[in-house]
User: Fold Carbonic anhydrase from Devosia psychrophila.
Amino acid sequence: MHSFPEHLLKGHANFMDGRYVREKDRYRELAASGQTPSTMIIACCDSRAAPEMIFDAEPGSMFVLRNVANLVPTYQPDGGQHGTSAAIEFAVKALEIANIVVMGHGRCGGIKAALNPDHSPLDAGDFIGKWMSMLGELPGQLGTNSMMTASEQQTALERISIRNSIGNLRTFPYVADLEASGKLAVHGAWFDISTGELWVMNGDSGDFVRPEL
Amino acid sequence: MHSFPEHLLKGHANFMDGRYVREKDRYRELAASGQTPSTMIIACCDSRAAPEMIFDAEPGSMFVLRNVANLVPTYQPDGGQHGTSAAIEFAVKALEIANIVVMGHGRCGGIKAALNPDHSPLDAGDFIGKWMSMLGELPGQLGTNSMMTASEQQTALERISIRNSIGNLRTFPYVADLEASGKLAVHGAWFDISTGELWVMNGDSGDFVRPEL
Amino acid sequence: MHSFPEHLLKGHANFMDGRYVREKDRYRELAASGQTPSTMIIACCDSRAAPEMIFDAEPGSMFVLRNVANLVPTYQPDGGQHGTSAAIEFAVKALEIANIVVMGHGRCGGIKAALNPDHSPLDAGDFIGKWMSMLGELPGQLGTNSMMTASEQQTALERISIRNSIGNLRTFPYVADLEASGKLAVHGAWFDISTGELWVMNGDSGDFVRPEL
Amino acid sequence: MHSFPEHLLKGHANFMDGRYVREKDRYRELAASGQTPSTMIIACCDSRAAPEMIFDAEPGSMFVLRNVANLVPTYQPDGGQHGTSAAIEFAVKALEIANIVVMGHGRCGGIKAALNPDHSPLDAGDFIGKWMSMLGELPGQLGTNSMMTASEQQTALERISIRNSIGNLRTFPYVADLEASGKLAVHGAWFDISTGELWVMNGDSGDFVRPEL
Assistant:
């Protein structure tokens, strides 16, 4: 067998000597009383876009689902095993969170694969191809727009996909109901890895702007 | 529309003034050259068990999938949209990561729901019920063992589930092949929210021990 | 007759008491020796995007053409009166400038009119309609992309149009020749009125980035 | 590819640290509400005669067209692409500006070329020659007046040309109509690069005088 990765053991030792020392009481309390996060973040697996880093989060503050390209499917209660839908259900019904944020990011490998199905290192018949097919016709429609650079198309699809996921989120009856009654708010955000900037979606127009400016 | 959560905006401002200032060069490089994480972590959505916190991780170092109860399904190339499988495929085939760590944690709400299907706030017919059904007969078998306390049963199932997920991981042909050739290693870990301790799985016996002791 | 606008007379008095006092020698020298600007800027008439403000320019440093939406036509030596082409010719052949910058900006009224020919306050049969028709099929192709918000489409077309103008610039034989011999460089830029930021075009990819970040 | 001119990047940095800091609120407001300039300036591309400098203008206050020698053609709705006419139409019909100022200046290269068609570095068959041919017989008529020095002829033609452009402006039906109804005023001005003085045209006589004296 392989031994546990040394960099993870060292990282955990840093955690024990640093954050845990400072936040011991909080961890004890979170273990004893259970979690009560106010916010669910639906983010990408990308190693460069961890929500807890980007939002300088405290333990216990955000319930975080991460899948490839931060996609949300439509509500499909067909008896299948839907991991993303299960997490949404748990967050909304069991944890009664007040906010759901769908957070995309620049240079997303999943979005890039969706835009370049033929030149991807991944076969479109594989899981990634099927997973990204959740975007339906969106990548193809955008891809025909040859006036935009590859990078511009990528950013555009990253944002289109966030809006699409938010639309899909609202097909969950309890999400729609709670949002209508003002108990739940749904948000979009996009993280720029290079500049560190957070672009926040305007809920009315769907546009992304930097709130700090 | 609702405005973007204030605590997230404030947290991001902290990030920009803190971590981003210190690691600006790293973020620039990660954006320009792409991600090359050596490790994939499959973890739970739980707000108290963020891998980046527990491993004091640097940006770019870990590709992180998070679903409810850190479950991995078996390899099912049936044309459906499998988010967890897509992330595994992306990590192994596109990113060529060297390690996969399935990390569970104590007091997991998903595991608790699996152990208490009738007393859960969640209907077994909902997404959570279906999702946790990935554990098959395991919760039921354990539940008949009335000699263990509820807490002991929970910890036991959390670890059983990690071993089960690792077994399922090995049904992916490329995972099995790469592991056999020594290019990929698969690990298990369990995080204790209360004490901050990391328990690491012994690959031969399946036991969980604290490596720092 | 109407008297000369008071705000202009007052502004000129400020100029005489301020900038002219400080730069009297420069103005005298510029008058005596003629202009030798190193750069031509092709910009929009928009009152919010004056190149001299944005680049904090000194008198004599930039030769500035401004038309609606900073458009450049293709080389059409048909004997007609082409104001933009005449300015380019004057800058390149008489002034021997070293750089041409096509600078667009956000919220451009001309681009907006091109995207909304039916809802514009201006009749498509008027001069504006004809002028913006220089973009040919570009607005129509982009406008069919209903996945992007109106604001996203506008920004996209502003940048597409800059790349289109740069392509048209290169149909001028002397521009192409001098660029090939390294004596002339052609650049693109986009100004964000709200944030004051300058986005500079990457000559290879056509993408726009903020160089100051 | 060539990198973006360093002097422009530096100038923009000065803008961000200076004017933008002082006028941030104004830029934000101008971006949000759109431009509402009261005045259109038709000026020359010359690097020494930027209207915003000469009138110490604030962002948003003047809509500025700049072409070689600040010429205005007659109204020619022939379906061609007329950049100057498009800008006039946009200013008058879309922005509903209250003043149009045709501003010439001393030592104008375009006017000089028109006076010296044979000794110009520019072939009369090129764009500049065609563009300046908008002045028709005016340069030729003046050139036969051998009693005036070359410098006197130049200044004379600069002013003749301004009056000519104003006459052409009035061939636009909406300009004539709005001027008749008192909603639009048309002005002439001439800038002396050497002394910084502004000479303003008397609308009745056509003479240019210095209003500050």
Observations:
- The first helix of chain D runs from residue 6 to 17.
- Chains D and B do not touch (no CB pair under 8 Å).
- Chain D has nine helices and six strands.
